[in-house]
Amino acid sequence: MTETSQTLDRGLQILEILAQAPSGRTVAQLAADLGVGRTVVYRLLATLEMHLLVRRDSAGRISLGTGALRLAGRVVPLLREAALPALRRLAEDVGATAHLTIADAGEALAVAVVEPSWTDFHVAYRVGARHPLDRGAAGHALASARGGGSHYVVSRGELQPGATGVAAPVLGVPHVQASVGVVALGDLDVEAVGPRVEAAAREVAGALS
Questions:
Q1: Per the CB 3.0–4.6 Å rule, which of 45, 67, 108, 201 could disulfide with 53?
Q2: pLDDT at residue 65 greater than cutoff 70
Q3: pTM (2 decimals)?
């Protein structure tokens, strides 16, 4: 049997709880959440505060600290690095701009983009581009995943006139809401491209697992 650290596990549980609690939690609430006494929670919080992973406001409520934000800031580069090989293959195979998009603050955020090397024309899509989750194939794929969907979705002209997008959700990666997609000017052979996009999404999921 693999040995685990109960203290570390509880500390990580606190961070996960606080990540889902925008208004923070009290020590009593955290103790109830973990099923332990307040003394245990105080000890855990002291260590987490030392590393700036949590902070305590004037009312005594606990929330995530700047250290947690710093760690979160490293997530996007890690996602990008893991996704780029699959995106490069997808862009070259399909002849369209490939992208990895995540859900961020209620919007779809492009965090990695690869343009095909051999096409005369392709869509210029920049890293950092944002759009509503209810528009574009990438946004629709993210919304579909939340509802349990796993197949590719298609959009036409929703973000750019004359452009067609195909995207599929990245599934099976805890705490990551992402989609892989392609976008091209004009039409795409969706029946051929769709399964290829789904396969790329599975590749990315495997790289992140």
A1: 67
A2: yes
A3: 0.76
Tokens of 151: 């197949």
The model's confidence at residue 1, banded by pLDDT at 50, 70 and 90, is very low
Beta-strand pair 163-170/62-64: unpaired
- Give me the DSSP letters along the chain: -----HHHHHHHHHHHHHHT-TT-B-HHHHHHHHTS-HHHHHHHHHHHHHTTSEEE-TT--EEE-HHHHHHHHTHHHHHHHHHHHHHHHHHHHHTSEEEEEEEETTEEEEEEEE--SS-S------TT-EEETTSHHHHHHHHHHHTT--S-EEEESSSSTTEEEEEEEE-S-TT--EEEEEEEES---HHHHHHHHHHHHHHHHHHH-
| Closest-CA residue to 102 (of 198, 12, 17, 167) | 167
Specify the residue for token string 């051929």: 192
Residues forming beta bridges with residue 64, ordered by sequence position = 54
Q: What domains does the chain contain, in order, with CATH numbers?
A: 6-72 (1.10.10.10), 74-208 (3.30.450.40)
pLDDT higher than threshold 80 for residue 69: no
Alpha-carbon dihedral angle through residues 125, 127, 128, 130, given to the nearest 10 degrees = 30
d(CA 86, CA 183): 15
Mean pLDDT for 70-92 is 92
